[in-house]
Automatic annotation (TrEMBL):
Function as written in the Swiss-Prot or TrEMBL entry: One of two assembly initiator proteins, it binds directly to the 5'-end of the 23S rRNA, where it nucleates assembly of the 50S subunit. One of the proteins that surrounds the polypeptide exit tunnel on the outside of the subunit.
GO molecular function terms attached to this record: rRNA binding; structural constituent of ribosome
Protein name: Large ribosomal subunit protein uL24
Organism: Lactobacillus gigeriorum DSM 23908 = CRBIP 24.85
Taxonomic path: Bacteria, Bacillati, Bacillota, Bacilli, Lactobacillales
Keywords, in A-Z order: Ribonucleoprotein, Ribosomal protein, RNA-binding, rRNA-binding
Length: 77
């Protein structure tokens, strides 16, 4: 896959077209990426010890890898 975690990408198709962000995670089997701050979805969460109230939270949803273009590669340490 041409996209790696930490790369800066630009969305070239879909509802988030034209926006930029950093790749948080990559799913190679499904050919999808999660970009920080883009494609936000609402997720219902049950109460737990870490989140006592539960409720509706917003998290990043995945975007198909063909809909993103790499702007700059992540630095290798």
């Amino acid at each position: 896959m041409f996209v790696k975690t930490g790369d800066k990408v630009k969305v070239i198709a879909g509802k988030e077209k034209g926006k930029e962000g950093t790749v948080l995670s990559v799913n190679v089997k499904k050919n999808r990426v999660v970009v920080k701050g883009l494609n936000m979805i609402k997720k219902h969460q049950k109460p737990s010890q870490t989140n006592a109230n539960g409720g509706v939270i917003e998290v990043e949803g995945s975007i198909h890898a063909s809909n993103v273009k790499v702007i700059s590669k992540a630095d290798k340490n």
